[in-house]
Amino acid sequence: MAGFGGAIKNVGISISSPSGKVYVHTAGMKDRKWGLFGIIPACLLGIASPLCMYGTIPIAASFRKQGMREDYLAAFMMASILLNPQLIIYSAALETTALTVRIVTCFLCGCAAGLLIFLFYRNREFFDFSGFEEKASHDTHPNLLIRYLLNVWRNMKATGLYFLFGILLSALFQRYVPQDLMTRVFGGNEAWGVLMAATIGVPLYACGGGTIPLLKQWLWEGMSMGSAAAFMITGPATKITNLGALKIAMGWKRFALYMVFVMLFSFLCGLAVNLVV
């Protein structure tokens, strides 16, 4: 495990605003002697990034130029899509169990994406970053930690309105949607409930902060934790802005593979969570 610690230590990243420039140093991450273990720090780095997908892809493009492997890139991008620091803060409102499930399942999804790319695209490029270019930086604070925290705060302000909107929606659900309906559709350990949650995550998800009050209300009304886990994966993974960026970086064929992977993983993950939690 000392090697794993070395890989983490050698990864450096300076993140600016979503429209800003990124500077990355991946000496440890591009060293091929780490093998599949490099997927783990790649996932953690993706979760730590506060940027949207259009901000994350230029970072991934920079990683590619520095020699990072495709499986590491896949793990980084998948984890970045599903989770970020501000969403973790919002998800604390779901209480410990749901927050833990969200972090663990999103991390595992990133690892699974990296593993699949390793198995099937080991010697081929999966992503095409030619459509993304770095732009001028708007962050000038010399302290990297403060610059990072400023970006987290900036993104929380940008999503705060959606969070309030989600509270309004949850109030409407509580007032007009019968509690037994949520229990019948999403409750218990049935595969049908997990499948329904994974499916509604595709059209319903607009912003991570906005869905937190809804999830809290649904869990209170009887939604199973597995169904919630499935929703928390398919929602951000199929958010329209994320899909637009990924389509550019993948092309239609690989984009279709991505959608199949997301739906299948969320379904199986939801079933597993219901068995464990």
Mean pLDDT: 76
Physical arrangement of strands within the biggest beta sheet: 1-2
Content-based structural category:
mainly alpha
Outline type: globular
| Strand percentage | under 5%
* Helix-strand pattern: HEEHHHHHHHHHHHH
- Gap between N and C termini: 29 Å
User: Helix tally?
Assistant: 13
Q: Please summarize the sheet with the most strands.
A: 2 strands, antiparallel
Helix content: over 70%
Q: Give the uncertain stretches in residue-range form.
A: 1-25
> How many discrete structural domains?
1
Spatial extent as radius of gyration = 19 Å
Total strand count, please?
2
What does this structure look like?
- The chain is mainly alpha-helical and 277 residues long.
- It has one domain (2-128, 143-276).
- The chain is 70% helix and 3% strand.
- The chain has helices at 2-9, 39-48, 53-65, 70-82, 85-91, 95-120, 144-176, 179-186, 191-204, 208-220, 225-237, 240-250, 252-276; strands spanning 11-14, 23-26.
- It has a two-stranded antiparallel sheet with strand order 1-2.
- The radius of gyration is 19 Å and the shape is globular.
- The chain starts with a helix and ends with a helix.
Layout: helices, strands, pairs:
Blueprint (H helix, E strand, L loop, with lengths): L1 H8 L1 E4 L8 E4 L12 H10 L4 H13 L4 H13 L2 H7 L3 H26 L23 H33 L2 H8 L4 H14 L3 H13 L4 H13 L2 H11 L1 H25 L1
